[in-house]
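Reference record
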Amino acid sequence: MPTQATVEAFIATVVSGQHAEAIKRFYALTATMQENHHPPRVGRDVLVARERAALARHGDVFTHPVDFFAIEGDRVAIHWVFEFTRLSGKTMRIDELAHQRWEGEKIMEERFFYDPVATLAD
């Protein structure tokens, strides 16, 4: 079960724009990450590489300050809002809910829920 301080540190790392660093620091080696109903990606190194590749496809990513998160035992829910500026200059806004299962101070499973239509904006 994560402490509130750990979850807050995780959130602060993401909000500061250190997305790949947050994965390296707070996810377990065998962590999984799943978007909506897509198959989960497995392994922290895979997750970091995928995050870096996604960031490289955009000119900028702005993470809004988190307005809500909840911790219940080993489960954490976080409301994220991201604004991606594509290389074309157009902006894509993703309003997402993340549901995580932690083991101790590391994320083992994470699933994101968001409107996939938002990712088509370009």
Remarks:
- The chain has a mean pLDDT of 95.
